Structures are given as structure tokens and as C-alpha cells.
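Quick note —
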Amino acid sequence: MLRSHRYSQTGSELPATLRRSSQVAQDTFTEARDSAVRTYREGDQADRAAFTILKKEFEKCGDHLIAKH
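Predicted structure written out below.
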């Protein structure tokens, strides 16, 4: 379950899995979340939308994310 805290663009508050992942994965999440915030405003719905986009492009491998392609 997602926590209700917000994620910063600097990466310091990104989930641990994303902090250990590539810069591309971090940028994808940040851009998706920024877009979701514009659509849904700050909140859990924006977080869930960003994670949905991230899951379409990356898969979890151990303790980090790798590109599906």
C-alpha cells in the first residue's frame, strides 16, 4: 500500500526501490507524477497513477527496477 507522503523531484523522498534504480526510471516516475498531479491534484490518486505508468515501462528485479524492453 502506498504511503500518503509526497515525492519530491530531487529524489530524496523517492521510494527506496526508485532511489536504487536508474536515473531513467526516476525521471519516468517524476514526470508521470507531475502529470498526474496536474490531472488529479496532490494525493494518493496521483501517486497511484504515476506508479501505474512506471509499472508499464519497468519491472522489479531484486531491489531495483529495470526496463521491460
